[in-house]
């Protein structure tokens, strides 16, 4: 398993940031979550809720073609750390192939060194988000 290049660049920026700046960097990524397409805004029930997250967090996966995956995330602005993780995933995984997404280590987020700045409960939410992303990709590929 390997971290895709786009995501590895993000991981390296977190690793090189001093501890006191990592949370700020995560909060910057909360601003990078693209707005939901109109379809998902109008049909929120078409998104899957990640119940392990403390905050209402929803995900949807689309496959514009068999070579690319596009993830859509919805998390309230008042949950900036969770939204920040969604921003990291959006920047690091959107547009990759299903195989690249599935090859991403489930716990890649540990390399972001966020365990020093956010709660274990938030980290468990991140793990659940990754699990859902991959499950949706596997289901699309008929692997589940």
> What is the number of domains?
1
What integer value in Å does the Rg equal?
Answer: 14 Å
Helices and strands, in order, run as HHHEEEHHH
Spatial shape: globular
Count every helix, treating DSSP H or I runs of 4 or more residues as helices.
6
In this structure, how is the largest beta sheet organized?
A: 3 strands, antiparallel
Q: Supply the CATH class.
A: Alpha Beta
Overall number of strands: 3
Overall CATH architecture = Alpha-Beta Complex
How are the strands of the biggest sheet laid out side by side? 1-2-3
Mean pLDDT, rounded to whole units?
93
Organism: Truepera radiovictrix (strain DSM 17093 / CIP 108686 / LMG 22925 / RQ-24)
Protein name: Fe-S metabolism associated SufE
Family: Belongs to the SufE family.
Pfam family, one: SufE
